[in-house]
Request: fold
Amino acid sequence: MKYVIMFTTTPELDAAASPEHVEQAYRRTFDWFGMHSEVMTESGAQLQPVTTATTVRYGGEEPVVADGPFSEAREVIGGFQVIDVPDLDAAIAIVKTWPLLELPGVAVEIRPIVVY
Amino acid sequence: MNETDPAAAESGRAHAAASDQLLARVIREESARIVAALTGWLGSLDLAEESVAEAIEEALRQWRTRGVPPNPGGWLTQAARHNALDRLRREKRYREKLAMLADPPEAAPLTGEPDERLPLLFGCCHPAISPDAQLALTLRAICGLTTAQIARATLAPESTVAQRIVRAKRKIGATGIPLRIPEGSERAARLDIVLTVVSVMYSEAHLVAGGDAAADRDLADDALWLARVVAHQLPREAEAQGLLALLLFHRAREGARAVDGELVLLADQDRTRWDRRLIAEAQAVLEEAAMLRRPGRWQLHAAIAACHSDTRDGGDTDWLQVLTLYDMLLAYDRSPVVRLNRAVALAEVDGPQAALDEVDALGRALAGYHLWHAVRARMLRHLGRRDEAMAEDLCALELTANDAERRLLEARVDR
Reply:
């Protein structure tokens, strides 16, 4: 089954962790992708910081363009990756080893992809 | 039934009551096996479970008046299979599936092996499903309760229960939650969720508000049955044995816990009403668990229950032993409710002031829990602070939804 895994962080909590720890954890994310390369599909991307986000929203007669992310939530999406694994347990097992999960405020959402 | 003839009404009721128990026994023995077998055949838990649930509704209607047929499992399987095929033919989205079902096993009995129930149970209790839905789905797919029975037993509106079950089943299908017993490092944590659901099932039986109305399904019975199934299927899992022992200890005290519909506190319970046979069974199960040398919270809860079961009256409880076990339990479970129960033991060993300090420290977490107020009232009363104790008992009274508990607290306030 194919799943999108969405990596989210909470910028204010990121700021609370020590810079060395954050840097060291980020460095290990490269190894993580290498370690699980067999389940990674070609779809995936790391996103520029949330400060670069632009949102186009329903606005009655015409869509409205505004600065900022789509959601007011404290968590922001930092990237996504499509993986191909047998079932949800396999996806959870891989996601649990995501190095940034050492940092408070980091969460990873797993969503299955619709198959037509 | 002739409503004006009291004797006929009485015998009718008595007959229905016995039959409810029999129906519960027969149906829960078959339900999960048929759901598992049909899921394998149809490739869809949602469809399989729905078809079995419908078959159970039909069975209850027919069997209640005509009696249970000689082969209830075969009857239910047949009816469920019929329902499934009917639905596949009716609904467009299933057309393709129907064509792919090469060989509907009409002749071969679809009873399934007993052990297929456990993988299904682990799927129903997957952490990706909310706790409320884990319980509702387990009650329906594993124990074979109808949605109406679950609603009555868990005090939730029927539509809410139905929605929880549908959502959970669809999530299992759509997100690829595997129906299997997890292996390796995941096993212990996943088993703990299963055991928690069984334990909640047992406690729900005592939480029914307005609690005097006889329900047609006793959740405590279902929970004990399920604890036995899990313990039997996973004989090397010490915690599964631990939970079974715990529920057996509690079940053994049932006869003394409520007398004429009134709750009796553990200290005041008439020990001669305890079921010695169940206590002996519980002790044996707990000893077997201990031999596996893998301690855990359910075994410790059971060991604490065992301490109480050893007493001849409330006065000879070995509170130091109870407190020691609670201290060990804290290493596995630091939940506020466990700490509150520990405080009761602490009061007996170190006095009410030490216990009150501990109880007060839990105020933020438990202020909405009636038993926190009841325990606090008890400590205050032991310290001679009667007015404060009375105020706490009134708080507890206000927060409890259970009639029997309410009367117990009222009696205390009146004193």
Q: What stands out?
A: Chain B touches chain A through nine residues (CB under 8 Å). Residues 6-42 of chain B form the longest helix (37 residues). The mean pLDDT of chain B is 87. Strands of chain B lie at 258-259, 262-263.
